[in-house]
Structures are given as C-alpha cells and as structure tokens.
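Service request form, structural biology core

Requester: graduate student, group of Dr. S.
Request type: structure prediction, single chain
Budget code: on file
Notes: please return the result as structure tokens.

Sequence provided:
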Amino acid sequence: MIRKITVLLAFTFCIYNYANAQTNHEQSGWFFFLNSTKFNEKWGLHFDLQVRSHDDWDGIRSILVRPGLTYFIKPNQNATVGYLFTSTFTRTDGTPNTTLIEHRVWEQYIISHKAFTGNLSHRFRLEQRFIEKPSGDAVFAQRLRYFFRHVQPLTHTESGFTKGPFAALQNEVFANIHNKENTNNHFFDQNRAYIALGYRFSKKLI
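Core staff response, request fulfilled:
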C-alpha cells in the first residue's frame, strides 16, 4: 500500500470571481489536506479535506470533504469518480447567518509528463452539483474544471526528485456548462492561480 500526502496551508489566497460582472479580490486562509492511497497497481483511494476562511481570515466560510475511488490507467494516467460534501457559512449584513449545503458527484482524469527537469500534470474534472439556495430550494448544475500544476525541483539528482526544495506553479479554470443562470449567471466561474516554494521531505510527501 502506497500513500502520497499533500498538505497546503495558505495564509493568503486570491480568488478571481466573475460574479456580478466584476472581479472580486479576496484574501482568505485556506487549509488543504490531500491523501492518495494506492491499494495495488490499478486501484486506489482519493481523499481531500479543505477549510477556507471568510475574507480577511474572519472565521470559517466553508468546509469541503471529498472522497473518491481511483483507477490507474497507466503510471502517468488515472481516472477518479467521487462524492463531495460542502457546507458554506454565509454572512450578510442585516440578515441572519445561514448554512448552505452542496452535494456533488464528480469525475476526473489526470495525465502527467516531464517538463524541463520537473513534472507537469493536467486534471480535467466534471462536477454534477446539487446546490442549496438561501430560499431552501435546491438546484442542479454542472461545472467543468481544468487544472495544471508544474513542480520544478530546485536541486538536481540523478535518481529523480525524492527530496529537496521545489517551486510550484498551478492554475485552475472553472466553467459553468449547465444551468449557469442558477449559479452566478456566467460561463467562466473562477480562475485560481498559485505560485509557491516548498520542500519535499520524502517521495511520499509533496
């Protein structure tokens, strides 16, 4: 059994949201835990947990729990199907605080390859979203997401990148492909860009 764990704690995170025909800049805390367990050559388990804060780190805004079952097509390709539960704690001046629940079914395909002396991965994810509205009604919508991540080791070793400092560049684009009228009424939902420096302690952690 092989496990790979990613832990990310971001103190500042900027989301570019196209809702309301403008760009909203938010600074929030974001804790991200990812565990990938491989049972054998073909099957594995995906799990990630995220906790995000309100703007200016003023309390918890949302909690996401996302398990999934992964099939490894090739060493550099895999497909996953899973479920997501998320609760969002909304706060609007003049109205009571509310908690909105969303359930998702999701499918994704990941392919990775060498780029320069690092590794570049591409992830395509389709989500079927069951979204609770403040009115108490639930709507169904679908969203497509494309994500790429490049990890560039900052030291060179002949045996491959198993330990040491690295730079990471990633970006994710969200597109509402079904029922955008009941989400934010825009085809392009969000764009999330991230640049970081990190240190890999072993081949099981990155």
